[in-house]
Amino acid sequence: MIENRKTLRYCVIGAGHGGQALAAYLQYLGNSTVLYNRTKIVVDEINALGGIELYGMINAMVKGMVATSDLSLALDSADLILVCIPAHAHQDIATRMAPFLKPHHKIVIHPGRTLGAYMFERYLKEAGLTFQLPIGETDTFALTSRKIRPGLSHVYSRKKQLKIAALSPEFTDAIYNDMRHSFSMLVACTSPVETSLSNIGAIFHPIGALLNIGRIESGEAYLHYKQGISPTIARFLEKLDAERIELGEFFGFQLHTAYQWLDDVYGSQGNNLFDALQNTRQYDEIFSPNEITTRYVYEDIPTGIVPMVHLAKLAQTKHSYLQLTLDLANALYGIDFNDIGRWDVEDFFNRYRPKG
Amino acid sequence: MIENRKTLRYCVIGAGHGGQALAAYLQYLGNSTVLYNRTKIVVDEINALGGIELYGMINAMVKGMVATSDLSLALDSADLILVCIPAHAHQDIATRMAPFLKPHHKIVIHPGRTLGAYMFERYLKEAGLTFQLPIGETDTFALTSRKIRPGLSHVYSRKKQLKIAALSPEFTDAIYNDMRHSFSMLVACTSPVETSLSNIGAIFHPIGALLNIGRIESGEAYLHYKQGISPTIARFLEKLDAERIELGEFFGFQLHTAYQWLDDVYGSQGNNLFDALQNTRQYDEIFSPNEITTRYVYEDIPTGIVPMVHLAKLAQTKHSYLQLTLDLANALYGIDFNDIGRWDVEDFFNRYRPKG
Predict the structure, then answer these.
(1) Domain ranges in chain A with CATH number 3.40.50.720
(2) Rounded Cα gap, residues B332 and B160, in angstroms
């Protein structure tokens, strides 16, 4: 007997590289999907085309989806809200979402980077939300995709594994059960500590950019993983990653190392992290950032390195490589990335640290 | 009336890029010169040629000089000893020189980097030298030269300014008066603090290498000053340099900034350090290090950044950029550069700090 379930109604927030492809993908799989984007001209272009065209892993002209820049309308027609926008815009969207949220809504920060769900709940409370909603986060993004223009997306691949956790464990199952029909690679975690510390971008992105800053700034295009992460930089990343793993151990999780992650996700191996990166063919065409304002620094430092540094300080685990990464970014950019980062983590720490 | 002075007898220690050209240059100017080199085969090649050929700024086949690998003989025939070898070899040469030194000798570490004369005196004492000698240091090397092979050197230019100081102020004049006949660009300083903190290589070399480590290690040849020191890296260097200047102020010296130094030495100007470097045609052909074991790291960190960090700690002046440079080098190379560096600076600090 086939289980009778109600149609899932998704709202995807943000029509960027991820959001546009994901909304079309969910609609393509039979879900009722709304794509919200703040900029009306983007929405109008999609609606004028009558939908979104996907090519690559999926080749389809996906129709029947609603695209809108009316947030009230977008949320009204949805049960599960996937927030797919850069982290620096989370506070703004949370503030604007708060008045329209209903108790039946579930929210997933996709991806959460580190502490995405936690910060989003705080933003919602600060914006006046009085009731508790299931809020979760994933450790990475479900698809690898690029937006060519409004209405046209290239989908390269699906991740083989996608971790998910809600802030309250009792909500994880509900979100997981809703989403797993469309996200077969989904793995439910017991705590957002695990999704937050599985943010592998914080390991692979910032140092690879910072230690090639002269190269980026002289306008040279090089391959981020293949030419940017040299043996010496890869050894630095192994030590940085070891601090992430040690922090995970403090919270009771045996996280996979960056080296193991390459095997999990891409089947790449080697004698060490450098070799494994060199053996990852999926990185063959990933080029370097072409501006020092890259999200490898401006997104991954405040939403990855900053919260890891502050959690490690509270946990009293080693964090000299994490701290050095933050100090170097601060010195090079002449700002304090804490100011735009997730540094205020004490409540999170106290809520999820091992008790007794 | 022309002053009647005794012929100056120089001993140049080391037949590398600097020493070989300098020995020939001093002999060419009429001084009696001995060139010492530890490796006998190098000495034999020079003697077989009957001298050293210079080309470039000076074109001459210089004869009549003694080249030897007999240290006793080399020192016996000299009054003023110029130590022109990499700093990591200073302890070895001091230990071997000590038994042959006489009270009439004067020693100049050329260049001293930071605290070269101070460390050399300690090495001599540790090696059993019981009497005090005039020991001085210069802030940079007198010539810009490259050794093509034993017996053949390319001399590009002479520095426009060369600072010199002895550990004891009363000896500075004696050394200065001896040397100024052959080194017309010589400027006597009141204290080795000034020569030590005028080590501009500590500003221009290590960070330029460390923040291009991925580039160096992927075998790319780029121009160290022109393509390696990008605007962001140049701004970092300005802050690093400001800590050197502040340290100088603590000791009572108004040192020139790296930006001013470019104008002093090369006549280069611009809106900022980046511009001035771009406008320095003398750097047009200075390529990047081709190995991560470059002296830009292995010499300039232990003999420049390390002593500046430790002096700044004692002086309680700002040193976050100096410290970050050291921390980054330690993390990337997986060693503690203090271990091979000039960290034990408390006696120096107490001897030269402003009193009262």
Answers:
(1) 9-190
(2) 36
Q: Do A321 and B331 meet the contact criterion of CB atoms below 8 Å apart?
A: yes
* CB-based contact, B325 to chain A, within 8 Å: no
CATH fit for domain A9-190, picks 1.10.760.10, 3.40.50.620, 3.40.50.720, 3.40.720.10: 3.40.50.720
The reply to whether B219 touches chain A by the CB within 8 Å rule is no
Residue B42 to residue B60: CA distance in whole angstroms: 20
pLDDT above 80 (res B82): yes
Give the pLDDT confidence score for residue B157 in this predicted structure: 86
Asked if B300 and B206 count as a contact pair (C-beta separation under 8 A), the reply is yes
The answer to whether ipTM exceeds 0.90 is no
Q: Are A237 and A273 in contact (CB under 8 A)?
A: yes
Shortest Cα distance, chain A CAs vs residue B297, angstroms: 14
Tell me: pLDDT of B6 over 80: no
Query: Within chain B, which residue ranges are assigned CATH 1.10.1040.10?
Result: 201-352
Residues of B in contact with A235 (CB under 8 A): 332, 334
Q: Hey, is the C-beta of B30 within 8 angstroms of any chain A C-beta? A: no
- What's the burial of A284, exposed, middle or buried (CB within 10 Å: 0-12/13-18/19+)? exposed
Q: What is the mean pLDDT of residues B70-81?
A: 96
Interface mutation vs chain A, best among B205, B207, B212, B215, most A CBs within 10 Å:
B215
Number of DSSP helices (H) and strands (E) in chain B, helices first = 18, 12
Residue A23 has pLDDT above 50, yes or no: yes
Numbered ranges of CATH 3.40.50.720 in chain B: 9-192
- CB-based contacts of A3: which residues, under 8 Å, 6+ apart? none
Preferred mutation among A210, A217, A298 to probe B, highest tally of B CBs within 10 A: A217
Q: Which helix (H) or strand (E) holds B323?
A: helix B320-333
Count of beta carbons in the 10 Å neighbourhood of residue B219: 10
Residue closest to B309 by CA, chosen among B298, B300, B321, B294: B321
Evaluate whether A67 touches A15 at the Cβ level (below 8 Å): yes
Verify whether the Cβ–Cβ distance A213 to B232 is below 8 Å: yes
Q: Measured between CA atoms, how close is A340 to chain B, in angstroms?
A: 20
Judge whether A320 is closer than 8 Å to chain B, CB to CB. yes
Q: For the residues B232-239, what does the mean pLDDT come to?
A: 98
Q: Vertex B151, ends B266 and B21: CA angle to 5°?
A: 25
| CATH class label, B201-352 | mainly alpha
Residues 155-214 of B with CB under 8 A from A: 208, 210-214
Give A290: exposed, middle or buried? Use CB within 10 Å, 0-12, 13-18, 19+.
exposed
Helix-helix angle A320-333:B231-250, to 10 degrees: 100
| CATH level 2 (architecture), domain B9-192 | 3-Layer(aba) Sandwich (3.40)
What are B151's two structure tokens? 């017996």
CA separation for the pair A201, A225 (Å, rounded):
12
